[in-house]
Specification:
The chain is of the alpha+beta class and about 220 residues long. It has 8 helices and 5 strands. Helix 2 packs parallel to helix 5 and helix 3 crosses helix 5 (about 70-85). It is an enzyme of class 4 (lyase).
Length: about 220
């Protein structure tokens, strides 16, 4: 899924990364801690999972997404609560306007409909009976298709060729789990890419390793 969240390798649009202060506090203001707690609670009461939470962050509108880290956590909490029918669309905006002295009719709360999906156990590691399709040393190429749903293949790595350096434990597939249509566990591979393969011959010389699901890959 393309969106403002998928900005890897696009430094020309966003500038260099800021220097990290090793003494930086976890929360710069009290409201950030509250936003963090609200997002975790929204995940719990909406019946969401980690992948659905990431997909909610992907759908945060660009101005809110770029406004700050905890701003997008708060916005994603609202998205999850709307998805599960706990909040009506527009309810938060209406409540905020009324707190400012406006006279906006708040939309009625819909009937909650928490998503459900059979679980193969705790966490995301799973056992897959089929043997891995790729082995260490294999040259693989990533898919070029751009799904409209959640996925974990960065845009800068689509249609690129790399080398498998490790076969990782099988895991729940985020593409389907985020939409509660099944865990569909797959083998996962550590794939090493040369920087010039990802960003062209002018790229700084280094290698980048990505953990990628089997359905993202084909033999080169």
């Amino acid at each position: 899924m393309d969106g403002v969240h998928d900005m890897g390798g696009k430094a020309e649009h966003f500038g260099p990364l800021p220097t990290i202060d090793p003494q930086e506090p976890v929360f710069h203001a009290e409201w950030e801690g509250k936003a963090f707690a609200l997002a975790l609670l929204a995940n719990r009461v909406s019946g969401a999972n980690l992948h659905a939470f990431r997909h909610a962050i992907e759908r945060v509108p660009e101005p809110e997404y770029l406004s700050g880290y905890y701003e997008r956590w708060l916005a994603s909490a609202e998205i999850l609560l709307v998805d599960s029918g706990i909040l009506a669309p527009g309810a938060v905006a209406a409540r905020a306007e009324n707190l400012r002295g406006g006279r906006v009719e708040e939309p009625a709360v819909p009937e909650p409909h928490k998503p459900t999906m059979p679980s193969g156990g705790g966490g995301n590691l799973r056992t897959v009976e089929e043997s891995p399709a790729f082995a260490v040393g294999d040259a693989v190429t990533t898919r070029t298709s751009v799904p409209s749903t959640h996925d974990r293949l960065p845009s800068y790595a689509r249609g690129r060729t790399g080398t498998v350096t490790a076969v990782q434990p099988a895991q729940v597939l985020p593409d389907t789990a985020a939409h509660f249509v099944g865990e569909n566990p797959q083998h996962v591979y550590a794939v090493e890419f040369a920087a010039h393969e990802l960003w062209g011959e002018d790229a700084e010389p280094f290698t980048l390793t990505l953990d990628l699901y089997e359905s993202y890959l084909e033999k080169a």
